[in-house]
Amino acid sequence: LQAIQQSHAFTQQNRFALNYSLTPSIPISFSTSTNFDLSSAGIKQRSDNGVDSLSFDVRSTSDVIKGVLTDTLSARRSSYSESFSASWRPQLNRIDALNWLTYSSSYGGGYNWSNSPRGSDLGATVSNSFQLDNTIKINSAKLFEKLGFIGKMEESDKNESKERSDFKKKLEQEAEQDIPDSLRTQKPPPDILKEARYFGRKLFLAVFSLDDISGSYKRTKSGSQPGYSGGSQLFYAFNDPGSGNYSPSLGYRMGLKDRIDRGQLVGNTDGDANIQLPANNSYSDNITASTRISPFQNFTINLDWSAIISNRQTESITVSPDNELTIINTESGSYSSSVWAFGKGYETLFRRQLATAYADISEGTTTIEDSLGNGDGRFVLNRNTLEEDFRKAYLGENTNGIGERGFMAFPKPGWRVSWSRLEKYIPFIGKLMSNASLTHGYKGTYKVDWSLNALTGKQAPQSLGDFSIVDDRGKYEPTALRAERRFSPLAKLNITWNSGLRTDLGYDRSTISTFAVSSKRVSQTLSQGIDFSVNYTFKNVKISFLPKVKNNIDMSIRGSYKNDSEESYKLDTDLDNNLFSGANSTTPVNQAEISSQRITGQQRINGSFTLGYKISSTISSNFEYTFSRIESNNIPTRTNHDIRFNFRIAIRSR
User: Fold this and answer.
1) How many Å apart are CA 605 and CA 562, to the nearest integer?
2) What's the pTM value of the predicted model, to 2 decimals?
3) CB within 8 A of 382, min separation 6: which ones?
4) Which domain holds residue 151?
5) Structure confidence by residue, pLDDT tens digits, 274-304
6) Same domain, 356 and 504
7) Domain edge (last residue) among 162, 187, 212
8) How far apart, in whole angstroms, are the C-alpha atoms of residue 171 and residue 1?
9) What total number of domains does the chain contain?
10) Of 212, 244, 269, which closes a domain?
11) Is 129 domain-assigned?
12) What HEC string does 473-540 produce?
């Protein structure tokens, strides 16, 4: 016989929200949500014996509601959540001395309480979050208006530029009219001081041609803790934990406090097995800044900085059957920043490591150890030394680490350059263009993942070539390194012709370098390619079966060629092949050979042709042909041809 399979769910949810403007510039809000479980209150156990001893009958909804209202039945709180938010945007534009400054700040915090299954005696899981955003923007035009001398310089530059332009036009007109040289306007004698003042003023105004300067700082953090023995209600937050009725403090609810006190965690009541109560906390800081420089009317440069710092901490709490606590702490995180990744690459990394090994070789021993060598604190294949060498190899020799652990590269800006009205400077065919522009962009990123090291100090010797190396591991070590250099595009020319034809031609190039520190494997992926597009609209086109209808046909041709190549290296293998005892150990670093290089790659060709015809606002058709081809040195060549035809009728009713 099998028991009757029964299940029953009965829940109730309460919500509350409050929005209030403390001042016109400071709105605040508060909301709560509570879920109750009435499943147990909504059933009556039967008195059956045997396999159906756990069967039950369901109470009617009206009986359950009546019981809750009369306090004869109680609901079990299953979850509870709170959220807080506030923002502040002072109206600085009303203050004449600060009307060039815009500032805003916003806060968001929250708290969640989730009960454990009935009868588990594992308490509740609580979590909280905190987010603070700060944004500042400087209107440089208004700021420079406060500095009267800049306005005067701009006016002087405008007047003198106009005088020079008018004088040049006058000379050109006299030349076209064949006026005798004796009657032409004579050029003034060169005035070095005047020329220096003119071009120096232009240079100064170009440097201070910042349109806007903006920056932001975002701080976020979150935490979670299972095994909480308290309740969830807000009015219990001010009670003493010894009173029996308590809940997380107001600071924890708003995200200001990170951890729950250990004294408020459940004990091991059963005493049969260990209880795991891991406390997790995450922190993140995101800093960005941007500006735009317009040294000329048709030439702009956009600059962007960024830096991201993240940290994750875990406190693994184990409660034994005797209610003794065992705590293990782990920590990890990452640093990421915008950089100029113009280093020489793997060869520099390899030679710096080899030089470190040579510097720590002492005569009469086959052990490579810093204390026996130059004592500079650098160890061959040490993870912290590897991070330093990787940074200098891929970012540049003068790039130093900053921050609490020295793993972060100082942020440098990426840029995007736009040069419009270029058709004026293109000979012969420039007059056939209505607009031409050239764009160039660069973005670089350096990221370091790190973790807390459980094994610190000197380690057991390891074999490397004819030597054994002794490492000294620090408290924090990098686990993965990544450097990116993207020119997107390196150059792209956009042209709109007088006929209405639009053409684009661009070249992209990017290099992504990664280093798996544990395996000592370095990978460099180079991707480069050309892409183009041609777009044209045939206007007022007639088709034979609709002679009275004139519409447009849109034509688009796109194509690209991409070449991807990946180079992989094994740093420990290259060092192993170049470290020999005896006279050969003094082989010059710049003559050491790299033997672990492996190269793979592929080429991708893509193209498409599209024709689109719109008969009316409700009827349109589209024809598209696409072509793609992938050629690789490790997989068979693959070619795809796709032809699509779409006919769409849109019917709308009101």
Assistant:
1) 7
2) 0.84
3) 471, 472, 473
4) 142-212
5) 999 999 999 999 999 999 988 888 899 999 9
6) yes
7) 212
8) 112
9) 2
10) 212
11) no
12) ECCEEEEEEEEEEEEEEEEEEEEEECCCCEEEEEEEEEEEEEEECCCCEEEEEEEEEEEEEEEEEEEE
